[in-house]
Amino acid sequence: MRRTKMSVEEIPIDKIDEPSFITRVWMSEEGLEQLKQSLKEHGQLQPIVVTKKGRRFELLIGHRRLTAAKQLGWKTIQARIVKADGAKKIILSETENIVRENEDPMTEALRFKQLHDTYGMVYEAIAAQLGVSGAYVRNRVRLLDLPEEVQALVAARALSPSHALELLRLPKPDYMIIIAKRAIEYGYTVPQIRMEVAKQLEYIRRWEEEQRKQAEEKTTQTTETQEPPFYTQADETTTEPTTPPEEYVPMHKCPICGKLRPVQELHQRLICTTCIAKAIEAAEKEA
Is 25 inside a domain boundary? Predict the structure, then answer.
């Protein structure tokens, strides 16, 4: 191995193993291509960081740089060798990534959880080591409660952690996915997605109240939907496109009987077919 200045060594790439801890969840292909181009034109500007592992090395920092170097066919790479084991390896890697702001939120979440579950570190201790707040660490870990489809959007930075945390107030993963996609499509701010979630929760509350009233009245009518339908803004004035995706089940209250009905069962989206029939029958009798 050829030793260079600043205690940086050039080591064989085939002697570097992947980290024993959780690595990057998502890597942008476009960003990787840009990094490869930079390495071609300017060479390696920053060394990766490794730790000794017998006669081999374990990667701690520089996963993208190592991946790019491998794809370019490099045989060696500049690396700084440090002593680290256990939780210290993760802390060292996370400290670097937080300073550089180049790690996706889901990778952070998984690493924080690993420090907590595997090494018994409380979130406040993790935060103190990394120089961030306890709330920052706890909120990152909360992202792991999101459905996988939403986690992927957060990892790809299509949806911010602040937006995603608002979705956790919803009772069903399907609702979280639908609103997450709407937020991306329409460019919701955090207050807007919070309002959208609040509307859905209110809609569920009213639906449940309607179901309770029907049960108390022992009505013989049954509805096709056995769970809260997804809220749609089709009957509201809005500057956004109002056509809901196919998976939505838009509902509207009939102004005559007061019951929630699928919009396809409503006459001009105002009066349900049952009430129209009754109105026609009553009109014919009067005639």
Answer: yes
